Amino acid sequence: MKDLIQEFKKFVSRGNVIELAVGLIMATYFGAIVKSFVNDIIMPPVGYAIAGVDFAELKLKIADRVLADGTIETITINYGAFINTIITFVIVSAAIFMVVKGYNEFMKKEEAKPEPKPAEPSKEEVLLTEIRDLLKNQ
Q1: Can you give the residue ranges of every domain in the chain?
Q2: β-pair partners for 63
Q3: What is the pTM of this model?
Q4: 2-115 — its CATH code?
């Protein structure tokens, strides 16, 4: 059990796990921002442009059901919310695509940079190398 705990501590203390956790947190909040952007900024004008339709309210009524307390519950398919989710997905996908594309271009530029040439040895180093080689040959 002690080995398992030590192995877990080693796993968690790695940089990759921390980076993964930060990335997951950032992605969660990025998704929330995009969802708000779609629902609150993009969809209202789009709905207005097509005769004042609020996509979030688009539903297909299947049936009414009477609950035990006498209230009526309407069972619906909320396809408007599904449309909002698809638009959110497209925007998030486009944003991630642009980030990955930029990262790939940056990496190509880094790979294309020539390796710096090692410094030429000084005259003293060249002379000492020659002396060493002569001594080896004797």
Answers
A1: 2-115
A2: 75
A3: 0.53
A4: 1.10.1200.120
